[in-house]
Design goal:
Largest sheet: 2 strands, antiparallel
Oligomer: single chain
Shape: globular
């Protein structure tokens, strides 16, 4: 079991290289936007990208998940048919939907609330979403084939291009927010060029109507579920805009994005997790493996949460961008929302773990109700809390909705795919993390602040050992892994030395 989970960790690490590096490069744009654009423009960009998130759901209509399910099992049709049918469907539908958006750009701009600002942006958004949708199935194919390195290379290249174009358009040519959308269109187009070989290699000339019907039956429930998920993730921006102003949305967005490192862990895990669970679904110890994965995931995420919560303020205030801090001083009062955002991402990651039973048993019809409950909680909490708590209210609303979605999904899935999760061990993680976080909040050593925070992290690990969180089998497996790695290094060193000293 440990070796299987180790392979999941290896794939996660490969996806993580591109994700971490790529998202870090992308995050560089946040301080650039904050220092180059007015906070009101940052708010406009945040609002438009929240609309893009909703459009992605409609354009994709669950085909990514449906493709991965049916391509992994080949219940209907051949491998190439399982690629061609969803790819062709998404290509045609996305082109039609993008054309409709451009045709109705005036009316859509009015719905967005500011025709003079949004009418031109609608065209860019239509092209971006169309290009990204066409790339969905090729990217999913690479993930399912465990071609993590190729996947990572393409993703990383597109992000580097995006960042470079942003710098060019914003700093050199001063195009304003339109330059941001030019950059996204260019990078999305380059992605399709790089995926061309994958697309050509997997295309078939034979259509399979039965397969298409099954794909739609599996995927369409993801539309309401996806809408609800997007409501949880981004609806706070439009609500915050309605209740405050664009400047407040910009400050909220910039600080919310500081949770990017937690989001990275969730994203790179999810990239590896779905192919992993489908691959091992029929293993006799599958449920035990899935339970152990959740335990390790919560441990990792709690560690990330503590590190970021302790040091994010120090990082943000460092003058590293041409003597500018990551965020200008006018944004600093929003730093208080960061731990709340991080905890929300932790619950999102837990939900991703619980979804295993949904995939394996093909019970996607249960997703919409659960996610809509989370969405309703999010919307209601935003309207209730923002007037009294401002941006903290928006962050708390997101946290509440993610937590509700995780709890609801657990009880739903347990009815048809019961797993005995290690809640006793997870409780120890929560207890140790809670003790350390409370100490950091109420006990301050101004003169030795950094050392005190490091000591608290050490205390977290010490508490885990004291509560006997780690099992002996895990400690032995870790020791064997480290010993094996050291043995390989020694062997490599000896071989290298022998090769150097051997006469020609």
């Amino acid at each position: 079991m440990f070796d299987k989970i180790k392979r999941l960790g290896t794939d996660t690490a490969i996806y993580g290289v591109s994700t971490v590096v790529g998202r870090f490069l992308t995050y560089i744009l946040t301080p650039i936007y904050a220092n180059v654009l007015p906070s009101s423009d940052v708010g406009i960009v945040a609002t438009v990208f929240s609309y893009i998130a909703f459009l992605n759901v409609f354009f994709g209509y669950g085909m990514e998940s449906a493709f991965m399910k049916y391509r992994s099992t080949l219940e209907i049709g051949s491998e190439k048919q399982n690629f061609t049918v969803p790819f062709f469907s998404l290509t045609v539908s996305s082109i039609v939907l993008a054309a409709l958006m451009i045709w109705q750009r005036g009316n859509l701009a009015v719905l967005a609330g500011d025709p003079s600002t949004y009418v031109q942006l609608v065209q860019y958004v239509a092209v971006i979403v169309c290009l990204d949708t066409i790339a969905i199935v090729p990217f999913a194919s690479l993930r399912l084939a465990r071609k993590a390195k190729q996947f990572a290379a393409i993703k990383l290249t597109s992000i580097i291009v995006n960042v470079a174009c942003n710098l060019l358009f914003l700093i050199k040519y001063h195009t304003g927010i339109e330059g941001i959308f030019y950059s996204n269109m260019i990078s999305s187009a380059i992605v399709l060029v790089m995926l061309a070989s994958t697309i050509v290699a997997n295309l078939s000339i034979r259509w399979n109507a039965a397969l298409y019907e099954s794909l739609l039956r599996f995927g369409l429930p993801y539309i309401p579920a996806g809408i609800a998920t997007m409501m949880i993730q981004v609806i706070d921006r439009p609500i915050l805009l309605a209740l405050t102003d664009e400047s407040t949305v910009g400050i909220y967005q910039a600080n919310y994005r500081l949770g990017i490192f937690m989001m990275l862990v969730v994203s790179m895990f999810d990239f590896a997790w779905r192919p992993f669970l489908l691959t091992h679904a029929k293993d006799p110890d599958a449920k035990q493996i899935f339970a152990r994965v959740l335990t390790y995931f919560v441990l990792l995420m709690t560690g990330v949460l503590l590190v970021l919560s302790f040091f994010i303020e120090d990082i943000v205030k460092l003058p590293i961008f041409w003597r500018h801090s990551i965020l200008p001083a006018e944004y600093w009062h929003g730093l208080a929302i960061v731990p709340v955002v991080l905890l929300g991402y932790l619950f999102l990651g837990v939900s991703n773990n619980f979804v295993a039973g949904i995939y394996i048993e093909k019970k996607t019809q249960h997703l919409p109700a659960n996610t809509f409950i989370g969405a309703i909680i999010n919307v209601a909490a935003n309207f209730l809390l923002i007037p009294y708590m401002g941006i903290m209210g928006a962050a708390l609303a997101t946290l509440l909705s993610y937590a509700a979605m995780a709890v609801g999904l657990y009880f739903v899935v347990q009815r048809f795919y019961p797993i005995r999760y290690e809640f006793g061990r997870i409780g120890k993680i929560v207890l140790a993390g809670g003790v350390v976080f409370v100490l950091s909040y109420f006990v301050r050593w101004e003169s030795f602040e950094i050392l005190w925070k490091v000591a608290l992290l050490v205390l977290f690990v010490a508490l885990m050992y004291w509560m006997k969180f780690f099992e002996q089998s895990e400690l032995r497996a870790i020791a064997r892994s480290l010993t094996r790695q050291r043995g390989d290094e020694v062997s490599s060193s000896v071989s290298s030395t022998n090769g150097f000293s051997e006469p020609k």
